[in-house]
Task: inverse folding
């Protein structure tokens, strides 16, 4: 018995090292003084200072945040309305699968499909087309998360609210949305992170003048290892880690309400 | 209570809520994906875009040995990635599922956390490690194991390791979810009754984990097969996969119908695979 536990424990330890060694190397090298980022010359924060004055990186970062924020809002609204509707319709398998399918379709297939569609309707590629494209798959994630919870809500509470004279809008904001809150938060965090990190779909549906951060990182990586990417990678890592941990905390608080 | 006339009103209300969103998804998900798949029978326009003559030329073009080789190569690399992920993912999930509740949560979070970081950054990290001047080569040289660097980057192996790194959590999570439900008393009883470690693994843990293993396999295989970034960055353009063909036909050769043909092939492979998965997992469930 002990022999086997030891073998699987060894593999598990290996896996943890395998998962953390590469990103630790990036974080470590981001504090490297040397401009040849693979040779360690001593600790320094210089590259963190230069990144703030790097115009292409900073403006692409702003675009990425803009796209992620708008995508999150749109996906939450569209995903929640679809979920409320499907729940009222007691819709069966097809409409549910239809609304969650964009989350499963390979990103490359969705990307070239959207590129073709935008070209057919002569819509020029810009941040707008990226936002539409991101909203498509983020909506699917929101529907998946919200539908999982909305079925558990007791419809008699909404009916009581209406019977007592509350308007439909008041019932929505006072009864339905508060009860959906944990899944709305989960959907928002999912949408924001997925949109912020998304590369393949943005690569195909974005115009050349308005690159998002992943597109800038992609073109930088193609030229090899540079100190700027180490710093950017570290910053993105910190943002994602903080985001995930915050989402878990908020999720717990919202669940307890 | 739903009143007698209420169900009809609630149906109208339901459609009123759902239809704007459903129309959005029809316009920007269903139509794009379906028309893209249909596009493979069209012809490339002279200045990009597509024109009407409908024929199956693209499919006969796609059977050129060069492209067949790429498709087989992609299948091999995606399979190798899924198998490697399974080989290290299964023992890890097994180990975690036997820990105390608190440690299970800690380790599962530790395994998901890297997955939430940007995938370009995670791919880039392997450039840092595998480079001729990179950390692994330097380490091996410093301990005197090698005197000149091992060429690790820009090989199919680098692509497989890189994609395993990207998608390993997607293998571990479903297997862990399946194993976590297993009654621990079951394996303990097997030991008490004198069953060997390997036998209890083979007769209890692996069959019970099978639905998770199948899902994990799909979760790793699907994004690996369509990936064009990792083959480019870690394979150095020497390892060409279906995704690279699609990308190049769309953005370089500007032959969209031909690119769509490869996307259709990609989609068909995935549909076949997912059908096999759901068939096998139904049979597994019946047997269990």
Result:
């Amino acid at each position: 018995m002990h022999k086997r536990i030891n073998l699987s424990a060894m593999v598990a330890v290996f896996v943890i090292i395998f998962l953390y060694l590469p990103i630790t190397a990036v974080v470590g090298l981001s504090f490297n003084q040397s401009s040849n980022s693979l040779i360690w010359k001593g600790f320094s924060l210089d590259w963190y200072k230069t990144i703030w004055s790097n115009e292409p990186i900073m403006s692409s970062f702003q675009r990425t945040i803009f796209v992620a924020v708008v995508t999150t809002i749109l996906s939450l609204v569209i995903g929640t309305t679809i979920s409320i509707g499907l729940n009222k319709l007691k819709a069966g398998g097809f409409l549910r699968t239809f609304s969650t399918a964009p989350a499963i379709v390979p990103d490359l297939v969705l990307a070239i499909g959207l590129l073709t569609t935008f070209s057919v309707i002569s819509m020029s590629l810009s941040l707008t087309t990226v936002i539409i494209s991101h909203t498509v798959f983020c909506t699917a994630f929101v529907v998946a998360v919200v539908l999982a919870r909305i079925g558990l809500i007791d419809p008699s509470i909404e009916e009581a609210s209406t019977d007592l004279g509350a308007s439909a809008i008041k019932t929505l904001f006072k009864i339905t949305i508060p009860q959906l809150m944990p899944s709305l938060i989960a959907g928002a965090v999912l949408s924001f992170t997925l949109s912020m990190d998304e590369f393949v779909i943005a690569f195909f549906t974005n115009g050349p003048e308005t690159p998002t951060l992943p597109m800038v990182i992609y073109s930088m990586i193609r030229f090899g290892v540079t100190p700027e990417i180490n710093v950017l990678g570290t910053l993105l890592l910190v943002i994602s880690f903080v985001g995930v941990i915050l989402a878990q905390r908020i999720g717990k608080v919202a669940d307890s309400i | 209570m739903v009143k007698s006339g209420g169900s009809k009103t609630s149906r109208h209300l339901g459609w009123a809520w759902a239809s704007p969103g459903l129309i959005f998804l029809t316009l920007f998900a269903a139509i794009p994906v379906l028309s893209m798949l249909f596009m493979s029978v069209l012809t490339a326009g002279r200045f990009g875009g597509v024109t009407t003559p409908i024929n199956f030329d693209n499919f006969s073009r796609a059977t050129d040995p060069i492209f067949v080789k790429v498709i087989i190569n992609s299948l091999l690399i995606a399979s190798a990635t899924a198998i490697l992920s399974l080989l290290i993912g299964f023992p890890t999930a097994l180990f975690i599922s036997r820990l105390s509740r608190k440690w299970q949560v800690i380790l599962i979070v530790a395994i998901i956390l890297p997955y939430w970081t940007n995938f370009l950054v995670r791919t880039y990290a392997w450039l840092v490690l595998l480079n001729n001047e990179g950390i692994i080569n330097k380490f091996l040289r410093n301990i005197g194991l090698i005197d000149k660097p091992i060429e690790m980057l820009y090989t199919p192996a680098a692509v497989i390791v890189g994609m395993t790194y990207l998608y390993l959590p997607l293998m571990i999570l479903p297997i862990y979810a399946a194993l976590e439900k297993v009654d621990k008393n079951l394996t303990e009883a097997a030991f008490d009754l004198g069953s060997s470690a390997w036998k209890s693994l083979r007769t209890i843990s692996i069959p019970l984990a099978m639905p998770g293993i199948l899902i994990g396999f799909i979760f790793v295989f699907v994004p690996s097969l369509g990936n064009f970034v990792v083959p480019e960055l870690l394979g150095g353009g020497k390892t060409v996969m279906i995704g690279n063909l699609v990308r190049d036909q769309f953005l370089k050769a500007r032959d969209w119908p031909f690119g769509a043909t490869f996307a259709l092939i990609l989609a068909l492979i995935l549909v076949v695979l997912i059908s096999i998965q759901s068939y096998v997992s139904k049979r597994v469930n019946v047997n269990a």
